Amino acid sequence: MSAPLAPTSREEDANAASAKDGEDPPGREVVVGVDGTEVGLGAVRWAAQEAARRSAPLRILHAAPYLGHPAATGGPPPELPRARGITAVAYTVARHTEPGVQSSTEVVPGDPVTALLRAAAAGQLVVLGSSTTGAADEMVLATMAAKVAARSPAPVVIVPRRRGAEPEGRPAVAVLGVGDRADDEAVALFAAATAQRSGVPLSVLQTRSSGRTVPASWVDDLDEWAQRFPDLTVQHSELPAARANQVLRATCPSPLIMISAGHGTLLHRSLDGPHLWLLRHCTSPMALIPPTDRHARGEAAPPG
């Protein structure tokens, strides 16, 4: 008789078993959610590359509400091969993209948002695919990605369907002015670490109307940027009270656009309207950085 499906079914990379005793434990995982769509596999490629840049393991997670509970006989659900097939394809893509990254797969019966938020609490970054082509399965993925980004204690990167060659020589972009000053600082730290790892310049776009003669935060002080990140090329620009479409024109295309997730509505049930507009129209990967009040609840994620 087959054993019943456990709450999580995890298949570790065989290479991980060969690690020598006494080595430092691996860093916190980069988590990527997959659902079997091509746009989800695009997220796997991006996540594998980012895990390599971070020297972090990659966790490929498929949440499968269609699995339900184990069969009455105690055997695994009949849909389990389908779920494991989805993670197997994603694993192959990850290994082809970055063979040196330690990768693992996981099938979780239940709600995708709940599973991804649980994984986010233990990981350092969550990566999800999103598309606005109108395909029914991809629209479900886009909605799920927005819900996760609105509540995640870790940064969430939304990777859109690829629409051409990667931008060459373009800077990563940090969009400030969304949320509190402390949220700007969290975005700035994440953005600087990202640009340094990727070896690209950083463009900082300030959308907040200041009117101050004395900087209210170090992110408003150009000399402070130079002191904190002397080896990073940083360019600054201002677009006070910018609308979402103006932000998009000023930032896209980019290897990564980084912005605070904002404070959303009650209990962070959804993203703000401008965030949803950007996610719907942006053709570059976008990182949504959790506001600092989530860190105050003991859910802190590392700056980078």
Structural summary, described in words:
The chain is of the alpha/beta class. It is 36% helix and 18% strand. The chain contains nine helices and eleven strands. The chain has an eleven-stranded mixed sheet, sandwiched between helices. Helix 4 (136-151) links the parallel strand 5 and strand 6. Helix 3 packs across helix 4 (136-151). The longest helix is centred in the first third of the chain and has 18 residues, at 80-97. The chain is globular, with a radius of gyration of 20 Å. 41% of the residues are buried. Residues 1-26, 133-141, 265-269 and 297-302 have low confidence and may be disordered.
Tell me the layout of helices and strands:
Elements: E1 9-12, E2 30-33, H1 38-54, E3 58-64, H2 80-97, E4 103-109, H3 112-122, E5 125-130, H4 136-151, E6 156-160, E7 172-176, H5 181-198, E8 202-206, H6 222-228, E9 234-238, H7 244-251, E10 257-260, H8 273-281, E11 286-289, H9 292-296
Parallel strand pairs: 2-3, 2-5, 3-4, 5-6, 7-8, 7-10, 8-9, 10-11
Antiparallel strand pairs: 1-4, 6-11
Overall mean confidence score, pLDDT:
82
Alpha carbon gap, first and last residue: 46 Å
Structure summary, number of beta strands? 11
What string, H for helix and E for strand, traces the elements in order?
EEHEHEHEHEEHEHEHEHEH
Arrangement of strands in the largest sheet: 1-4-3-2-5-6-11-10-7-8-9
Please give the largest β-sheet. Answer: 11 strands, mixed
Low-confidence stretches: 1-26, 133-141, 265-269, 297-302
Share in helix: 25-40%
The chain-level structural class is: alpha/beta
Q: What is the C-alpha radius of gyration, as a whole number of Å? A: 20 Å
Query: Approximately what portion of the residues adopt beta-strand conformation?
Result: 15-25%
Total helical elements: 9
The coarse overall form would be globular
